[in-house]
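Re: folding output
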Amino acid sequence: MKKLLLFQLIAWFLFPTISESQPLYYPPTSPTATWETIDPSSLGWCQTRIDNLYTFLEQENTKGFIVLKDGKIVLEQYFGTFTNQSSWYWASAGKTITAFLIGKAQEENFLSINDNTSTYLGQGWTSCTLAQENNIKIRNQLTMTSGLNDGVIDSDCTLNTCLEYLANAGTRWAYHNAPYTLLEGVLQNATGQPINTYTQLKLKNPTGMTGSWLTVDYNNVFFSNVRSMARYGLLIQGNGAWNGTQLINSAYFNEMVNTSQNLNKSYGYLWWLNGKPSFMVPTSQIVFPGSYAPDAPSDMFAGLGKNSQIMSIAPSRGLVIIRMGDVPSSPDSGVPFLFCNQIWQKINELDCTLEINNQELNKIVIGPNPATNTISISNIKSEKYTVEIFDMIGKSILKVSDQNTIDISFLASGIYLVNVQQGNQSQTQKLIKR
């Protein structure tokens, strides 16, 4: 068993290589113009496996899904009453737009990311001392290293009374919405333009995107249709250029989609980066080894939002993957690592040349993941089964039979392997315990 688990763990870090990326196609900027498509069979993708992917997505409460191959639509599917014109929220995937706009404002000399945030929000925007507050820079807001306390009652609250000192800026990584949200005020005060106006001029007009920012409680949330999110993903796949026109400074773009600090290797400027040696998760200070989406290409990076709003870009594969919808069966903790990886598992299985058994097409689902107290296991096909949890050196920690809700509160924080045995079929998945 230990050897099998070790083999599976290693396999998670190996990715199939299919058709390499080609020169990018850019659709016309008119949102009503025809967007060129490509036949999935030209990539060696089987229709039956595409149907299985769509069934999985529908079961997981997806509303809209699109895959671009080198800019052309290869898969596009909508569920229920949702259409290609329906609008939906990006949640934290919209943070990536803010990162783009901050870079554009710096390029236009409205600000520098090394400026003190108080230059644009005024003194007293936090409850810190003046010295502590002046140590927080725009760069810290972009990299989630403000040092402000993310453990307050409402981490979305942008009132100064909610923004408490916990550590010196730049010394602690924590996924904290409030300092990010205040970047809107930084942008508005630096450029003299509301964020919707600046977005229209610098992003929507050049690319044909539609959508707008709306205030939801304390948060600034971008809403658009699926194709607009795909347009933005294509812009990012093209290194910030649209049809030959560079829309953002190349040096800033490279900083944005590469490791931005030494605390969380998998975080850029509000982008999640795959293929790094370690990653961190919201509400935790644990540094986990490996990639957050081991079944995705190592060069993949993503905008990830609550309830599994996903914009995943893999330049080496020439793919942009968009998912919008409601919360899936395995709810995330604000950042849908698990669901993003599950979608890549399904994409990898589309290749007709791969032999896939029913076990691969019907993988168990463990959620939530990361988890704190309990986990639930779904998509089990047998009435009789066993669940066994191992640590990373293969030691069995817990074994139960015919039980799909399992107490893990006693486990120490870290990474574990959960094995489910159904008859002669065995599946193992990674579990993060907070």
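--- second protein (sequence, then structure) ---
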Amino acid sequence: MAYTLLIGNKNYSSWSLRPWLLLHASGIAFAEEKHLFETPEFAAEISSRKRSPNGRVPVLVDGDVKVWDSLAIAEYLAERHPGLWPADAAARAHARSACAEMHSSFGALRNWMPMNVRRSYPVATPREDVQKDIDRMQALWTEARSRFGAGGPYLYGTFSNADAYFAPVVFRFNTYGVKCSPVVASYVKAMLAHPSMQQWIADSRAEPQVVDHEEPEFIYEKQA
């Protein structure tokens, strides 16, 4: 199988991280095609819908098939590569529900703590709505670890679709210095140490482009 994955900036694109990490960590061969945000090339190739059906990234290309949503990509790959979801039915149901919740929720966390891999910007006291998202996230991860995580350091024991899906939040917690429970702190540490996460970090730091409105100073200037 020869996949091509269209992604955006590694420093900023949380949606791109998810399928890239799943592919890379699972040892599935793919070609990476990066399109930098706010460039004429991105407008011509992605925003114009020439290469992306919805004008966004990520997009997984598999021959004549294009899959253009991160959760749909995860499911598409799971159909072709067994083992990307937890094997246990109850764990698998929990993982799918958790990923769907991530996909549709946590708006305050997304808005006020956008992914910025190469920065450290501790926030001493998050906004109330952000803290509610943080509390829910930690509860979700703690439940996964306590009920299904005995087989390893990841949410459902071994690395799965769910870990790839929550990887952007791991980076957010790290960037903004989120106070974590011991269980969550241990999970964040394990994720940050994963070789594929380390590769993404290195690639993010090597990117020269800075998108001003994605930087923490700009985000928190809006709040003032």
